[in-house]
Amino acid sequence: MPTHGRVTPDATDRGAKAQAEGFATVRQAHESEMAEDYVELIAELIELQGEARPVDIAERLGVKPPTVTKNISRLKDAGLVSRERYRAIFLTPAGQKLAEACRRRHRIVVAFLLSLGIDEDTAERDAEGIEHHVSENTLEAFERATSRFEKKC
Amino acid sequence: MPTHGRVTPDATDRGAKAQAEGFATVRQAHESEMAEDYVELIAELIELQGEARPVDIAERLGVKPPTVTKNISRLKDAGLVSRERYRAIFLTPAGQKLAEACRRRHRIVVAFLLSLGIDEDTAERDAEGIEHHVSENTLEAFERATSRFEKKC
DNA sequence: CACCTATGTTAGCCTTGTCTAACTTTTAGG
DNA sequence: CCTAAAAGTTAGACAAGGCTAACATAGGTG
Ligand SMILES: [Mn+2]
Ligand SMILES: [Mn+2]
Ligand SMILES: [Mn+2]
Ligand SMILES: [Mn+2]
């Protein structure tokens, strides 16, 4: 018996265990966030300009070039990216697969926010963070709700 | 003229500047996340048990006690928390105000996800991360949509 | 083809948030 | 009132992801 039989307090308590799992899930999401944002952006740049250059990655991420160098080398260690010094960056098959999943998720989240009547700038801004915390379950709910809304429910 | 007059490529490009601002916003949100989660939890524990003890904070956050000690001292430096060594933790007026805002936001996000048909566990889990990336704008849209859905639209 | 400028990398620093191991203080039972 | 267990703190390590300053390379232009 948790909290030794209290008289049902005000705040709803899901239990310490469940709450701890929630926070752990958030911490895990943040661990993969850098990789996800990078591969997604690299895929976009390749589509947009034929190649992904550190200079462009840095500009679009809003970070300085040395940060990109360091993080790209982490992605290379993780097998998501292939590249030779001073050359453009490419995605490995694993990187392409991850990028595709991330772009899909990003698109779904943005479309959903837009369908709620949120302006495009805000939708993109919020989606950039939200995307990493959306379970597959929730993502599907977003998809369903988007079409429902679009049929001006 | 950005990208020197291309022939409208496949991927939609919001411009490097806007994209960088989005990522900067996410980084900022992550900077305040620790403080937000702690004061929210401290407020919950005070309501639930009359006081907030490090041991309970650690358990519910899923971290070890020394982590809590260190972070609480950061919150104290930030003026959000007041406490004496070995004693329970309390919120300053600033801390209470922040906690109240965070709890409201958390509740709105959870209610919204539930209204979408998501199960409670998933809703709580996803909300714990999403809450920090929801602009006031989006939060209001969530509120409106929740009532719309509850009237089984 | 030599050189200047863009681009990229390296080295080294900082902050945040986590941990373990060891120590201290509080508190409850006998 | 003493003492053992629970709770809390301190010290020190580590990884991630930022930064600046300084150096290295690649490539387009004169
Ligand atoms: Mn993102
Ligand atoms: Mn949270
Ligand atoms: Mn929360
Ligand atoms: Mn986040």
Topology:
The structure is a homodimer of 153-residue chains.
Chain A: H1 16-49, H2 54-61, H3 65-77, E1 81-82, E2 90-91, H4 93-115, H5 120-130, H6 136-150
Antiparallel strand pairs in A: 1-2
Helix pairs in contact in A: 1-4, 2-3, 4-5, 4-6
The site of one manganese (II) ion (MN) has 4 residues of chain B, from loops.
The structure holds a DNA duplex (30 and 30 nucleotides).
Structure description:
The structure is a homodimer of 153-residue chains. Chain A is mainly α. Chain A has a single domain (16-150), classed as Winged helix-like DNA-binding domain superfamily/Winged helix DNA-binding domain (Arc Repressor Mutant, subunit A), CATH 1.10.10. Chain A has helices spanning 16-49, 54-61, 65-77, 93-115, 120-130, 136-150; strands spanning 81-82, 90-91. In chain A, α4 (93-115) packs across α5 (120-130). Chain A is globular and about 60 Å long. Chain A starts with 15 loop residues before the first helix and ends with a helix. Chains A and B meet through α1, α2, α5 and α6 of A and α1, α2, α5 and α6 of B. One manganese (II) ion is lined by residues 37, 40, 106, 128, 131 of chain B. One manganese (II) ion is lined by residues 37, 128, 131-132 of chain B. The structure holds a DNA duplex (30 and 30 nucleotides).
